[in-house]
């Protein structure tokens, strides 16, 4: 039998936004940015858009203050190793992992994130609903550009930053191999996720996204929420003004999310969450990958 050290992991996705899940309850692993990037490498590693590092809130300095409300902390990292405040699809997959691992029972739970505690409901039909909190809409015009084309965009903060541009055709976003240009300079000092949106019908949109730290992904939960909020404001359907919840169906390359903003500003996101596989990382491979 091999004596090499093994690190347990799982692979999961939410509307094809995929993650390497690394359970590490006591925060014992030194998950450096380089280690995260090596794990997310689609050719030399396991491959994913990001890592969900599963840590007890009490064991993580960034989450300790939330430990009384939420036992588990989603220490989310982008595929390039950078840290992000929040990942909407990640919260659903994180909850699915906690449920399947037997860490939480049926029904409602709370998880800690860098954007605060999020409440989660796992329905009998298997879909997961996340209380995403409120959107912030910072003042000031922003623009998004790809090649010769440019669009006015809406600045929406879902705990993490987004620029939402309504376009005529999703193909106008091009191949998104490089990040779109976003202006004015300094509008997003920490970088930004960029969404391109088209209408599909009343309360129904489709989008593509270029994510900060991961490139184009097949889905982005916080991005879908930002899009729904931007669409509601554009459509004159601001729930705080109308007193009526606004619901948008958001189609993404990897699936469908349903987003509801309530009159009190709270946003709920519903969608699938799937655990695909589990296995062991060869710690020696990971060490070599970092050299
Ligand atoms: N895919 C995520 C968002 C992940 C973080 C993002 N790339 C950032 O840097 O803000 C989602 O589902 O929300």
Automatic annotation (TrEMBL):
This is Diaminopimelate epimerase. The active site is at 87, 87 (proton donor), 220 (proton acceptor). It holds the Pfam family DAP_epimerase. Belongs to the diaminopimelate epimerase family. The record marks 162, 211 as: Could be important to modulate the pK values of the two catalytic cysteine residues. Homodimer. Its main location: cytoplasm. Its EC number is 5.1.1.7. Substrate binds at residues 17, 78, 88-89, 160, 193, 211-212, 221-222. It is found in: Cytoplasm. PANTHER family: DIAMINOPIMELATE EPIMERASE, DIAMINOPIMELATE EPIMERASE, CHLOROPLASTIC. InterPro entries: DAP_epimerase_AS, DAP_epimerase_DapF. One of its GO terms (cellular component) is cytosol. Catalyzes the stereoinversion of LL-2,6-diaminopimelate (L,L-DAP) to meso-diaminopimelate (meso-DAP), a precursor of L-lysine and an essential component of the bacterial peptidoglycan. It comes from the Bacteria. GO terms for molecular function: diaminopimelate epimerase activity. Pathway: Amino-acid biosynthesis; L-lysine biosynthesis via DAP pathway; DL-2,6-diaminopimelate from LL-2,6-diaminopimelate: step 1/1. Keywords: Amino-acid biosynthesis, Cytoplasm, Isomerase, Lysine biosynthesis. It comes from Streptomyces griseochromogenes. It catalyses: (2S,6S)-2,6-diaminopimelate = meso-2,6-diaminopimelate. One of its GO terms (biological process) is lysine biosynthetic process via diaminopimelate.
């Amino acid at each position: 039998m091999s004596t090499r050290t093994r690190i347990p992991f799982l692979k999961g996705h939410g509307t094809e936004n995929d993650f390497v899940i690394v359970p590490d309850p006591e925060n014992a692993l030194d998950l450096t940015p380089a280690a995260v990037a090596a794990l997310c490498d689609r050719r030399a590693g396991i491959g994913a858009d990001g890592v969900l590092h599963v840590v007890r809130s009490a064991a993580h300095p960034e989450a300790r203050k939330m430990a009384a409300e939420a036992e588990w902390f989603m220490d989310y990292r982008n595929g390039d190793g950078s840290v992000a405040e929040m990942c909407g699809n990640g919260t659903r997959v994180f909850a699915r992992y906690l449920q399947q691992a037997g860490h939480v029972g049926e029904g409602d739970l709370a998880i800690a994130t860098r954007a605060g505690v999020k409440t989660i409901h796992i329905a009998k039909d298997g879909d997961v609903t996340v209380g995403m909190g409120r959107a912030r809409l910072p003042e000031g015009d922003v623009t998004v550009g790809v090649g010769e084309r440019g669009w006015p965009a809406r600045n929406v903060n879902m705990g993490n930053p987004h620029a939402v541009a309504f376009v005529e055709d999703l193909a106008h976003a091009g191949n998104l191999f490089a990040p779109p240009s976003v202006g004015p300079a300094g509008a997003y000092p920490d970088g930004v996720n960029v969404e391109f949106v088209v209408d599909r019908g009343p309360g129904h949109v489709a989008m593509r996204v270029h994510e900060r730290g991961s490139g184009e992904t097949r889905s982005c939960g916080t991005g879908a929420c930002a899009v729904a909020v931007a669409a509601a404001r554009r459509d004159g359907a601001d729930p705080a003004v109308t007193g009526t919840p606004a619901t948008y169906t958001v189609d993404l390359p990897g699936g469908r999310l349903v987003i509801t903003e309530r009159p009190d500003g709270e946003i709920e996101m519903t969608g699938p969450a799937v655990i695909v596989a589990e296995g062991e990382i060869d710690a020696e491979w990971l060490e070599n990958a970092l050299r």
